[in-house]
Amino acid sequence: MSWVESLQKAIDYIEQHLLEEISIEQIAQQANSSPFHFQRTFAILTDMTVGEYIRNRRLTLAAQELSHSDCKIIDIALKYGYDTPEAFTKAFRKQHGITPSEARSCTGRLQSYNRLAIQVSLKGVEPMKYSIMQKEAFQVVGVKREFSYENEEQHQGIALFWRDVHADGTNDRLCALNDGELKGVLGICIDSGKAKPKMMDYWIATAHQGEVPEGLLSVEIPASTWAIFEVHGAMPDAMPKVWKQIFSEWFPSSGYEYAGTPELEVYPNDNPYSPNYYSEIWIPVKKK
């Protein structure tokens, strides 16, 4: 089964079980993927989390049912996963801008989220500059925080983590310690796996050989075959744009697949807000 077919199978599974309690583990299994990697891929491609997609789809179907049936609002609320009319009304208004009662009386516009169908581009309009490189294991030193990805809390948490690292001087310290082949400060996602389900470690670190400096931690990045992508442009917009190209254009046509070890974002010590800023994405890959 191809990468695109696997992802579509997972989306189809969501749709088939939309009115049931389904876990991210069950969904990711349909794509033969880890929960962590599936959620990350899904969010990059769709600009929404798995939880947001499920919630948006349920409220879309609820709005259609309100408009075309005589079912009680409380019954529709329960059907689509809300325990109280108040919770349903709050969520419904947030998505549609009107209350369930107004939707029933057709006195407002509704916002519809249609069923997803994954489409990819085998030839990107903009060329992607990348290289494939084999690299032995290496040590990084830095700081880390643990996040739960069950409720997608890592997205906001990682942004705050970077803010704190810049504010307290850790980023400058890591730049000074850098003595490896990767030049700059690294953002590293590491899935905790079965040891801590639904948890991930996010490191802000740098390549550094030898003794671990006081106050910092170390982790070994395993030997890997890396696909290294150039990123040109100011943060924070340039990096997400290339991530989306990688998953929507490069992976489907490259002959490679994700290898499952930690991935890296490399931020050189320059002005990240400059339109000429250069950074990199390192993804561990293996031949299909």
Topology:
Elements: H1 3-16, H2 24-30, H3 35-46, H4 50-68, H5 73-79, H6 85-96, H7 100-104, E1 130-135, E2 138-148, H8 154-167, H9 170-177, E3 185-191, E4 199-207, E5 217-221, E6 224-232, H10 238-254, E7 256-258, E8 263-267, E9 278-287
Antiparallel strand pairs: 1-6, 2-4, 2-5, 3-4, 3-8, 6-9, 7-9, 8-9
Helix pairs in contact: 1-2, 2-3, 5-6
Kindly describe this structure:
This is AraC family transcriptional regulator. Keywords: DNA-binding, Transcription, Transcription regulation. GO terms for molecular function: DNA-binding transcription factor activity; sequence-specific DNA binding. InterPro entries: AraC_E-bd, Cass2, Homeodomain-like_sf, HTH_AraC, HTH_AraC-typ_CS, MarA-like, Reg_factor_effector_dom_sf, Tscrpt_reg_AraC-type_HTH. It contains 10 helices and 9 strands. The longest helix is centred in the N-terminal third of the chain and has 19 residues, at 50-68. It is of the alpha+beta class. The model has no long low-confidence stretch (mean pLDDT 89). Strands 1, 2, 3, 4, 5, 6, 7, 8 and 9 form a 9-stranded antiparallel sheet that branches.
According to CATH, the fold-level topology of the largest domain is: Multidrug-efflux Transporter 1 Regulator Bmrr, Chain A
Quaternary form: single chain
Q: What CATH architecture of the largest domain do you see? A: Alpha-Beta Barrel
Helical segment count = 10
Rounded to an integer in angstroms, the radius of gyration calculated over CA atoms is: 22 Å
Give the ordered list of helices and strands: HHHHHHHEEHHEEEEHEEE
Number of domains: 2
Average residue pLDDT? 89
Q: What is the global morphology?
A: elongated
Low-confidence stretches: none
Please identify the structural class as seen in this structure: alpha+beta
The CATH superfamily of the largest domain appears as Regulatory factor, effector binding domain
The biggest beta sheet reads: 9 strands, antiparallel
Percent of residues in beta strands: 15-25%
Ends distance? 11 Å
Count of DSSP E strands? 9
CATH class of the largest domain, named: Alpha Beta
